[in-house]
Design a protein that fits this description.
With about 550 residues, the chain is α/β, with parallel strands linked by helices. The protein has helices spanning about 15, 25, 100-110, 125, 140-150, 175-185, 220-230, 280-290, 325-355, 380-385, 395-405, 430-445, 460-470, 490-505, 530-535; strands at about 40-45, 50-55, 65, 80-85, 115-125, 155-160, 190, 200-205, 240-245, 360-365, 405-410, 445-450, 475-480, 510-515.
Length: about 550
């Protein structure tokens, strides 16, 4: 039987449904850890200066403290709604909602905290698992109704990538089996590095317009998927479902899979590798070189660009005066980044046509690749497809493309500070965020943010509050917090979240948290081995 959004059939049986109550029904029954009054004042300086503490009561140690209000622009006092990402495995392999009663309780708690809504991945590998054009939206239908019942909003990610093998991936959801079957027949359907390693995270953009998926092109497959979603959930679009984030690459981000963590291929802060060695990408490169009248440039990617875990100065291409700045290097990087922009524009154009008139926002996600940002070549950004160097702004073309399609520019690493990063990696997440804020402001595109890594401490929240304001560049229109799990509901962590949401609703001008004192892991892959066991023991909701 075909189910519709209004169908009474559900994965929640009637007996179980009777136990569900909305936030309004049982708000008085939920008890959260008491938030004590602030114990000392803070004077906030610039992000590069230390926070000075004016001690008033050392016996009471709280994360959040009163801050004397200062004058800000109107934009900096705008309310910034906060969303919370749901667990990656919110929907099971079988298509049902995982732990629905626990999820309902979690949604009620988030509502009580003042959260605007939640975000969920709609995995291609789950929905179209049973065959081409055979969609199973049942678990997501149940989730949408539950979100609505709790008075929350929903951001939905069209996740055309696999889950597993990257930072924070807690489960494995591969691409649909029938797609994997096609890949086994034709391995060039996926991204490939210079050594011939195949990456099954996402279909190579080199075959975007070729009918390689049982008679359909990848773009047609993504389009059909989004159209099916629109038809199934049309009664909720613009009301409950307020944003569609369109996946355009690994981790749902517009980028190449240049730093894959699976099997230890890459580790922070390696420069990564170019992903242009499947036959479709090689053919495109050769055609571009021929058009330039230099056939030799199209015989492959740079021969001197090094390996995944090297540093820029260890390579001929990325070093200070390397090949990246030569005529050949400029040709290659222009081609490599242009292909990524064309891929994103094609998918977003399709999404724009499908969701036009639904009152849903469209968004696209760009990765916060902050390591080696303080070098001339910005090697890690280049291998990911962002042609951003000391002499060239690589985020302005992306912002322009998003603006053309009316798409929100969603950016990560909003919680990171330069001083938290290892000196040897030449990181500058703050400089990177400033650059993106300026690029989006210059073209008039809306900017939203996420934290790249799980953070529960006051320092992380303070940085988000700082970057959310429009004091330097574009302010944030929304922020999505990563991620809902059991650890978030620990008393101190929950207090921090509640206060953070309150601050964001007030424009971030009334309170700021103190610096990080929780020994949180602050940058990618510098995670202590002892934390691996702890993470394994944390059962997500």
């Amino acid at each position: 039987m075909a189910l519709t959004p209004c169908s009474s059939t559900s994965f929640i049986n009637k007996k179980e449904r009777k136990n569900y109550r909305t936030h309004d029904d049982i708000s008085s029954m939920i008890c959260f850890a008491k938030i004590n009054p602030p114990s000392c004042n803070l004077k906030a300086k610039s992000s590069n200066q230390e926070v000075q503490f004016l001690n008033s009561n050392m016996e009471e140690k709280e994360k959040f403290h009163m801050l004397t209000s200062s004058t800000h622009s109107n934009n900096s006092s705008t309310k910034v709604p906060v969303f919370v990402m749901l667990p990656l495995d919110t929907i099971s392999i079988g298509g049902n909602m995982n732990k629905p009663r626990a999820m309902n309780a979690s949604l009620m708690a988030l509502k009580s905290a003042g959260v605007e809504g939640v975000m969920v991945d709609c995995w291609w590998g789950l929905v179209e698992k049973d065959g081409p054009l055979k969609y199973n939206w049942e678990g997501y239908d149940e989730l949408v109704k539950m979100v609505q019942a709790n008075g929350l909003k929903l951001q939905v990610v069209m996740s055309f990538h696999q889950c597993g093998g990257n930072v924070g991936d807690s489960c494995s959801i591969p691409l649909p089996p029938w797609v994997l079957e096609e890949i086994s027949k034709n391995p060039d359907l996926v991204y490939t590095d210079r050594s011939g390693r195949r990456n099954p995270e996402y279909i190579s953009l080199g075959c975007d317009q070729l009918p390689v998926l049982r008679g359909r092109t990848p773009i047609q497959v993504y389009t059909d998927y989004m159209r099916s979603f629109r038809e199934r959930f049309k009664n909720y679009l613009g009301d409950v479902i307020v944003e569609i984030q369109v996946g355009m690459g690994p981790c749902g981000e517009l980028r190449y899979p240049s730093y894959p963590e699976s099997n230890g291929t890459w580790r922070f802060p390696g420069i990564g590798e170019f992903q242009c060695y499947d036959k479709y990408m090689k053919a495109s490169l050769a055609a571009s070189a021929d058009a330039m009248g230099n056939e030799s440039w199209g015989r492959g990617g740079p021969h001197d660009s090094g390996q995944y875990n090297q540093f820029p100065e260890e390579t001929g291409f990325f070093k200070k005066d390397g090949t990246w700045n030569s005529e050949y290097g400029q040709f290659f990087l222009e081609w490599y980044s242009r292909k990524l922009l064309e891929h994103g524009d094609t998918i977003l154009a399709s999404a724009e046509g499908i969701f036009k008139g639904t009152s849903c926002k469209l968004s696209g996600k760009v990765a916060g690749i902050h390591w080696h940002y303080n070098t001339r070549s910005h090697a890690a950004e280049l291998t990911a497809g962002y042609y951003n160097t000391r002499n060239k702004d690589g985020y302005l073309p992306i912002a322009r493309m998003f603006a053309k399609r009316g798409v929100v520019f969603n950016f990560t690493c909003m919680e990171m500070r330069d001083g938290e990063q290892p000196h040897s990696a030449n990181c500058s997440p703050e400089g990177l965020v400033r650059q993106v804020k300026n690029a989006t402001r210059n073209v008039g595109v809306e900017l939203a943010g996420e934290n790249a890594l799980e953070r529960y401490d006051g320092g992380g929240y303070a940085q988000v509050l700082s970057t959310s304001r429009a004091d330097s560049g574009n302010g944030l229109s929304a922020f999505t917090y990563l991620r809902l799990n059991k650890r978030l509901f620990e008393p101190e962590n929950w207090r921090n979240l509640v206060e953070f949401v309150k601050n964001m609703s007030e424009g971030g001008n009334t309170r700021l948290p103190e610096c990080d004192s929780s020994r949180t892991d602050l940058y990618v892959r510098f995670v202590k081995q002892s934390h691996a066991k702890k993470n394994a023991e944390v059962a997500v909701v």
